[in-house]
Design goal:
alpha/beta, 425 residues, four-stranded parallel β-sheet, 19 helices, binds Double cubane cluster
């Protein structure tokens, strides 16, 4: 990594604490990601992105800021990135995937708060995330209770705007959400000084749709047997989708897909055709949270699809590009986001239906459901998902965990027993 220390210091990163993070992340990446066998050559771009995750991309964002552009951080796939892009802002994901500054976090949050929220606050309190430190505005959302209340605390240390998300998906909720997206437009216009028009929004919709189309293409080639890419590599790509410059990212995903489609044609895989195929479902996995996929894939199975926000929930739906006037296009953007089937909605029958459909499309041998400890929406919703998945004849394993390593052995034992049961069945 080039010497970015002056830049980090200028944007407010705590260099000493950040040095500590840099001592841990590269070796973890080497052990979990780089050490895998038979990786596609085109993963080199995503590896280099990770190697420079706090370097080159931050440098680019800082250069944009010097030209007057704004950076907007967010924590949720409900925040419409087309709107941010159309108004001249770069969007970055701020969810934390590692435990940082836990003693400092204890001063603000009870222990029984999910690891993702605790981690995100830890990154801010420890000032170790350059994406947080470059964000001119942070957008929260009223999804789960933990996040809602966390944003009040975060508002004491960052410029926070909270979008209100409905809890249901009826017509009154849709109309409310469309208005809420318009309130976001007002707020971002105020931030960037730009005015939304139909051409700007059409271009942004096209760019973001292209990004999601590339991820859909990647998802499609993962249906092949033997699997052409590991679940850990696919997860890494989905995590980087929240940070990278979108056009470049799209090109790199498409280049990778060229290679993967050739692999599929040649019957070349990262694992044998007899390795159990797993659908991973549940809470998002933010960088560097690769714990459960690593356990699964070092136990002889391959994750062939993710029903996660760092997965198919992010790219499954596209915005209708046919609208020609601004009002209709804004409505289409809003409607696309309301199709996301996060567990914070009630009822949320479509999520279980989608999981059953995906399990069939990807010919999976089992669904592993990942719930972060203290995540009420995903923990409680596992009941309905389990019932639907098992009724379709697919084995189901529920795993509740956090970002610590203390339960790794116990989870490995359970995953191995699950895989044995699949093989025996
Ligand atoms: S659309 S999944 S990104 S809310 S894990 S903080 S739910 S207690 S992250 Fe999410 Fe948006 Fe939904 Fe996706 Fe709360 Fe659960 Fe923690 Fe969670």
């Amino acid at each position: 990594m080039e010497d970015y220390r002056q830049m980090w210091s200028d944007i407010g990163v705590n260099l000493e604490a950040h040095d500590g993070l840099l001592e841990v992340l590269p070796p973890l990446f080497g052990d979990v990601i780089v050490s895998q066998e038979n990786r596609p050559a085109r993963m080199a771009y995503f590896d280099s992105f990770f190697a420079e995750i706090h370097g080159r991309r931050i440098w680019e964002l800082v250069q944009e800021q010097k030209q007057g552009k704004k950076v907007v951080g967010s924590f949720c796939t409900y925040v419409p990135e087309e709107i941010l892009m159309a108004l001249g802002a770069s969007s970055v994901g701020l969810c934390g995937g590692a435990e940082v500054a836990p003693e400092a976090v204890d001063q603000y949050l009870p222990h029984n708060t999910c690891a993702l929220i605790r981690s995100s606050l830890g990154f801010k309190l420890g000032r170790v995330c350059p994406y947080f430190e470059t964000s001119d505005l942070v957008i929260g959302e009223t999804t789960c209770d933990g996040k809602k209340k966390y944003y009040e605390i975060l508002g004491e240390m960052a410029n926070v705007y909270v979008m209100e998300l409905p809890q249901k998906k009826g017509e009154p909720d849709r109309l409310f959400w469309r208005d809420e997206v318009r309130r976001l437009i007002d707020r971002v216009e105020e931030l960037t000084g730009e005015k939304l028009d139909v051409e700007k929004l059409r271009q942004a919709v096209k760019v973001v749709n292209d990004k999601r189309r590339a991820l859909l293409r990647l998802a499609e080639v993962r249906k092949s047997s033997p699997p052409v890419i590991s679940g850990k590599d696919a997860l890494l790509i989905n995590q980087i989708a929240f940070l990278d410059e979108p056009r470049r990212f799209t090109n790199k995903v498409n280049e990778l897909c060229d290679e993967l489609e050739q692999r599929a044609g040649a019957g070349k895989g990262v694992a044998g055709a007899d390795a159990p195929r797993i659908l991973m479902s549940g809470c998002p996995m933010a960088i560097p949270n690769w714990k459960l996929p690593h356990i699964v894939e070092t136990s002889g199975a391959t994750v062939v699809m993710e029903e996660l926000c760092t997965g198919s929930r992010y790219y499954r739906n596209l915005v209708d590009e046919s609208d020609v006037d601004l009002d209709a296009l804004v409505d289409s953007v809003a409607d696309r986001y309301l199709e996301i089937d996060c567990a914070v909605f009630t009822p949320n029958e479509e999520r279980a239906e989608n999981i059953v459909r995906m399990a069939s499309e990807y010919a999976v041998d089992g669904v592993i459901y990942y719930s972060l400890m203290f995540c009420t929406p995903y923990g409680v919703e596992s009941y309905k998902v389990k019932k639907a998945v098992e009724a379709s004849g697919v084995p189901f394993l529920y795993v509740e965990t956090d970002y610590s390593q203390g339960d790794t052995q116990q989870i490995s034992t359970r995953v191995q027993a699950f895989l044995e049961m699949i093989k025996a069945g």
